[in-house]
Each structure stands twice: as structure tokens, then as C-alpha cells.
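Whiteboard transcription, Tuesday session. T.W. wrote the C-alpha cells on the left side:
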């Protein structure tokens, strides 16, 4: 085996391992040198200028002026290397020389190789929520809230968009996309998102399932949604980098400011993003805004003529009372679908309910969250409809359409006891309705008016008495205006089947006269 020559690089590596606390045996085996050589370097008997045949190499003067231990500590705390260079050695050397010496002293900081991807104008954008949240305080109550920051970036020009909302739920997620496309002045061919539930229901490497609302906005804007793989941030590197850029700049600019509303936060985010977009890019040598305006904006798809209305889809099961519960409100569904799972489409103004692909109900959306019920009577079974219609207002309305006299009677009953006379009023209306169907409205109205007049004359407001009176009126009408009580009974004389005829009748009269006083007796 050929003898390995001691070089400056090997000499510095031995010094680094000695500083790391490694033993002479470990260093000699790792680098293929003698233990005696390692021992001499450890004791200081061998110096760097003695290595090789040429003149001794010495580090630049600025290297000795940098506190590398502090630099390493700041990097470990997560600070950006460029910011550290600007603070500690910008006046001493260039950023490239600083990185070269840093990686030479600490090779573990070297990053792995990457594959460069290039994108055409209008080809793609990336979206995500920032991990950091912005706090704001309600000055009226003193309560502190957190705002969630949505970011989007075009992959070619790297133009950034940011917008804050109170949460990351589907309405805000979809509204953020609509605002982003409008801010970009067009729609890219591909939109790359993270695998959050408001965007992706079920992840898959090749065929993920999108949220129905997210798929609808993608169809409306004619863009292809391609979710990033779970736990693969490099699938969307531009938005990951823009999160750091925007949030660091925002935190620094407003580090002494207390926000009192989300609107105020959005104004601050707009100002921060505008400064970043107008600043010359270190690689493009031009600003993101200029690159977008000159090259990418003409390549974007045109915005739709109709703005997208945020839509949210949910699943719910129909209760036995023919309603579904949603946002502390209840919406009716046709009763044949009781117990089924249905899909609910929520828009800004309406609630649509679907069974499979058929829309079975449409209601105005209720935002009050007070437990209100929105019931359409046609959705309920017959018995439920009858129960819901048994209200004083409904009964009065029915009575008015039958007869004004009947309405007056019902009002009198309700004035005495509404709930106690509710079923009695139902019975009167039902009997009057049946009479109209059987005899016709012209005849029935006359009989109903006479029956009600008789009920008022005797103060008897019972349903059975009303039925008997109507029946009596009907018979009187059929017999030419005479009732059974008005007809005179004609008895034929000499009828042996009649009582008190002939002698028996005279005897009875005689006995009756004996019971009377003397002056009143019949002679």
C-alpha cells in the first residue's frame, strides 16, 4: 500500500478531530496515518507551515476576526446564514467567501445535492398556510386571538400573495384562492397545495381524493390541483421559502406593533409582500413584480367572467323528524329519505341538500346559530303536516275561507280559551267542509249560517249539536221547508189500533172531570 502524503487538508482534519475529543487510535485509523504523527500534532510539535514543500499557507486576516463559535450557535438556533453574515462579517468579506470558509470549518453544515427544476411562465403556483400565526387583541374585551396566514407564489416569477383569516376552514381556504387568482391577474395551469383536509380528503401518491368544494373551485378556474406528497416539503419548495421570507420580514417590521383586527393584519401583510415583490431578486437581478408583469402575466389563463362563490360540502344523516342539523340550525328533507346519509352544499346564501346526484331540498342559510327550524310542510308525512297545521292562525284562516259566521264563532271560542277550544274549532271546520263537499257551497253556506245562529241563540257550541243542526236544516230543505215538528198529525177515526178511541175515550174524559173542581168540570 502506498504511503499517504500529509496534506494541508488532512492536517486540518486531524486538528478538527483532536478538537472534537477523538483518540489518537481513532484518528490514525480514520485517516490512515501514524499515531505518532497524530501525537506530535496534538502536542504542537508539528505545525501547519511544515506540511508540504511549498511555503506555509495562512488563513486570511478576516477569518481570525470572526467568532465562529457564535456563528455556529446562531445557525443552530435556526437563524439564516445570510443574516448572520450581514451582522458579523459583511464589512470583512463577501458572502461567498464567508460560506466557503464556514463549510470548510464545519462540513456537517453542507446541504445535500438538489435537482434544479425550471418552470415556464404561467405554468404553476404553490399554496400553503404559514406555521406561525399572528396574534391580535380585541381592545374592547382584551381577548387575544390568532390569525392564520395563507400564502401563494407563482413558480416562474416567484410573485408572492399573502392573506390572513380567522381560521383555516373551507370557506376561508376557498376565498383565499379566489383572492390569490385575482391578485395574480390570471390562473396558472397547475396549483400545488398541501394535504390539509380542506383541500384533500384522502391522500394518495398518484390519485388523491380532493375535497368536493376544492374540486369545484378548480373546475371553475380551469386549473389542475396537484397535491404535494405527505411529509415532502420539497414538492412545494417555493411556497416553503416564501413563508420564511414573508414571516421574517413581517415580524421584523411590526415587532413593536399590536394588532387589533384581522383587517389591520391584512393591510400590514399587503405592505410587507409589496416591498418583497418590488425588491430586486438576487438571482433574477430584477424584481418579482417586474418579472411577473413582463413575462408571466400574459401566459396566465384569463379569470372567469363570473366570480366564484365559496362552496362547502358536508355529510349528514337525516333525523327521524325529517331534518338535518347544521350550524345550530335545522333544515327539512322529504320524509322518504329519513335515516339516509345526504350531501349538503353550503353557499353564502343557501343550503342545498342532495341524495346521490339529485337535489331534494333548498333552504336559505341561517347564520344566527340559535337553533331555528326551517321546515317545508310538503317534506313532512301527512300526520306531521296535520299536527303542524293545527295552530290558531291556521284554523282561523281556514274558517275565514269557509264562512264569515264560522270565523266569528272560532274567534269567540279562542277568546275564551285558545288551547282548550282548539280541537273543537277543528271539528266545526271539518264538519262544515264536509257539508260543502256533499251539498255544494251555495246550499251549505245557508245551512251553516242558520246552524251557527241557532248555536248562538241557545249558547251551545258543541260539534255534535252543530252536526245535528246541519242535518235538521238539510231535512227541512228536502221536505219543502217543514220539519217533523211542524207537520200536524192526522188520525183517522175508528182506528182500533189507536188508544182512547170510542167508549174508552169517554170513560177517560169522565174520570178526568171528576178530578177537577166543580165549577171547572166539563158539562
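and on the right, the sequence the group agreed on:
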Amino acid at each position: 500500500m502506498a504511503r499517504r502524503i500529509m496534506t494541508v487538508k488532512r492536517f486540518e482534519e486531524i486538528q478538527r478531530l483532536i478538537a472534537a475529543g477523538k483518540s489518537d487510535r481513532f484518528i490514525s485509523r480514520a485517516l490512515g496515518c501514524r499515531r505518532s504523527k497524530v501525537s506530535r500534532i496534538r502536542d504542537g510539535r508539528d505545525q501547519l507551515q511544515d506540511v508540504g514543500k511549498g511555503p506555509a499557507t495562512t488563513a486570511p486576516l478576516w477569518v481570525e476576526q470572526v467568532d465562529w463559535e457564535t456563528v455556529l450557535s446562531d445557525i443552530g438556533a435556526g437563524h439564516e446564514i445570510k443574516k448572520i453574515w450581514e451582522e458579523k462579517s459583511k464589512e470583512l468579506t463577501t458572502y461567498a467567501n464567508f460560506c466557503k470558509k464556514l463549510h470548510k470549518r464545519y462540513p456537517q453544515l453542507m446541504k445535500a445535492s438538489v435537482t434544479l427544476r425550471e418552470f415556464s411562465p404561467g405554468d404553476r403556483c404553490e399554496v400553503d398556510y404559514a406555521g406561525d400565526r399572528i396574534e391580535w387583541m380585541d381592545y374592547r374585551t382584551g381577548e387575544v386571538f390568532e390569525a392564520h396566514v395563507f400564502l401563494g407564489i407563482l413558480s416562474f416569477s416567484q410573485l408572492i400573495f399573502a392573506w390572513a383569516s380567522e381560521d383555516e376552514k373551507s370557506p376561508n381556504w376557498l376565498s383565499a384562492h379566489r383572492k390569490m387568482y385575482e391578485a395574480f391577474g390570471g390562473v396558472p395551469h397547475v396549483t400545488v397545495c398541501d394535504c390539509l383536509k380542506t383541500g384533500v380528503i384522502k391522500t394518495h401518491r398518484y390519485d388523491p381524493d380532493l375535497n368536493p368544494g376544492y374540486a369545484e373551485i378548480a373546475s371553475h378556474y380551469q386549473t389542475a390541483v396537484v397535491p404535494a406528497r405527505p411529509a415532502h416539503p420539497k414538492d412545494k419548495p417555493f411556497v416553503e421559502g416564501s413563508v420564511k421570507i414573508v414571516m421574517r420580514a413581517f415580524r421584523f417590521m411590526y415587532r413593536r406593533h399590536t394588532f387589533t383586527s384581522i383587517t389591520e393584519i391584512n393591510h400590514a401583510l399587503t405592505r410587507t409582500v409589496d416591498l418583497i415583490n418590488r425588491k430586486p431578486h438576487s438571482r433574477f437581478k430584477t424584481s418579482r413584480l417586474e418579472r411577473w408583469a413582463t413575462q408571466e402575466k400574459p401566459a396566465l389563463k384569463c379569470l372567469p367572467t363570473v366570480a366564484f362563490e365559496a362552496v362547502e360540502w358536508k355529510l349528514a344523516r337525516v333525523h327521524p323528524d325529517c331534518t338535518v342539523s347544521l350550524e345550530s340550525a335545522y333544515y327539512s328533507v322529504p320524509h322518504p329519505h329519513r335515516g339516509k346519509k345526504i350531501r349538503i352544499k353550503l353557499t353564502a346564501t343557501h343550503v342545498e341538500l342532495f341524495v346521490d346526484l339529485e337535489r331534494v331540498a333548498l333552504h336559505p342559510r341561517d347564520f344566527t346559530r340559535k337553533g331555528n327550524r326551517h321546515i317545508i310542510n310538503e317534506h313532512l308525512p301527512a300526520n306531521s303536516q296535520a299536527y303542524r297545521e293545527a295552530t290558531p292562525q291556521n284554523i282561523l284562516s281556514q274558517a275565514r275561507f269557509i264562512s264569515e259566521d264560522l270565523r266569528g264563532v272560532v274567534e269567540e271560542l279562542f277568546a275564551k280559551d285558545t288551547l282548550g277550544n282548539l280541537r273543537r274549532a277543528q271539528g266545526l271546520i271539518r264538519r262544515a267542509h264536509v257539508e260543502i263537499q256533499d251539498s255544494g257551497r251555495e246550499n251549505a253556506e245557508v245551512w251553516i249560517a242558520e246552524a251557527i245562529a241557532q248555536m248562538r241563540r241557545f249558547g251551545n257550541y258543541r260539534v255534535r249539536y252543530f252536526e245535528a243542526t246541519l242535518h235538521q236544516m238539510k231535512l227541512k230543505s228536502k221536505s219543502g221547508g217543514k220539519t217533523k215538528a211542524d207537520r200536524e198529525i192526522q188520525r183517522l177515526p175508528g182506528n182500533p189500533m189507536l188508544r182512547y178511541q170510542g167508549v174508552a175515550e169517554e170513560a177517560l174524559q169522565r174520570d178526568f172531570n171528576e178530578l177537577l173542581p166543580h165549577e171547572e168540570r166539563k158539562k
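Someone added at the bottom: The chain has a mean pLDDT of 86.
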